[in-house]
Amino acid sequence: MDLRELVLMIASQLPGRLPILIALVVGLVLVTQRRTLSPASRRAGLLGFGLLLLTNVLAMLGWPLLQMYVMGAAMSATQVQMTFALLAVPLALLDAAGLVLLALAIVRGAR
Predict the structure, then answer these.
(1) Which one of 42, 52, 59, 75 is separated from 69 by 20 to 30 angstroms, measured CA to CA?
(2) Which comes out higher in pLDDT, residue 109 or 1?
(3) pLDDT digits (tens, 9 = 90+) for 12-39
(4) Using 50, 70 and 90 to split pLDDT, how confident is the model at 1?
(5) What gap in Å lies between CA 42 and CA 102, rounded to an integer?
(6) Which residue has the higher pLDDT, 93 or 76?
(7) Residue 74 above 90 pLDDT?
(8) What DSSP state is assigned to residue 35?
(9) Cβ contacts of residue 64 below 8 Å, gap of 6+?
(10) Would you call 44 exposed, middle or buried from its count of C-beta atoms within 10 A (0-12, 13-18, 19+)?
(11) Gap between the Cα atoms of 57 and 65, Å rounded
(12) What is the DSSP string of 36-89?
């Protein structure tokens, strides 16, 4: 697989990921502009949106890179599953942490 195919694989994810990326950027901008939030709530919101944005960008780049690696390596089905789990689990944990931070921001902001 060459660089052109990798770029096409990444670009093919844009229609599905672009709305989420835009929403996360809008959330970041809204939190930064909201001066009435408490500093703790604002920090948690920024960290939450930032972490979710980072996770989505990493996933958008990571999955095609991992697929490219797996296609080039002679791996058994079990090895392929383990390789994909090595990316899926950390991304899921980062997503969960981002959502917890957003929930924390909402709870702190409601006080």
Answers:
(1) 52
(2) 109
(3) 999 999 999 999 999 999 999 988 888 9
(4) low
(5) 10
(6) 93
(7) no
(8) T
(9) 6, 9, 10, 13
(10) buried
(11) 13
(12) TS-HHHHHHHHHHHHHHHHHHHHHHHHHHHHHHHHHHS---HHHHHHHHHHHHH
Q: Which residue has the tokens 């296609």?
A: 71
pLDDT-above-90 percentage for the chain: 76
Q: Which helix (H) or strand (E) holds 19?
A: helix 14-33
Task: Retrieve residue 95's tokens.
Answer: 């997503």
Overall size of the chain counted in residues: 111
Longest dimension (CA), the chain: 56
Residue with tokens 């490219």: 68
**38, amino acid identity:** S
Q: How far apart are CA 24 and CA 21, in angstroms?
A: 5
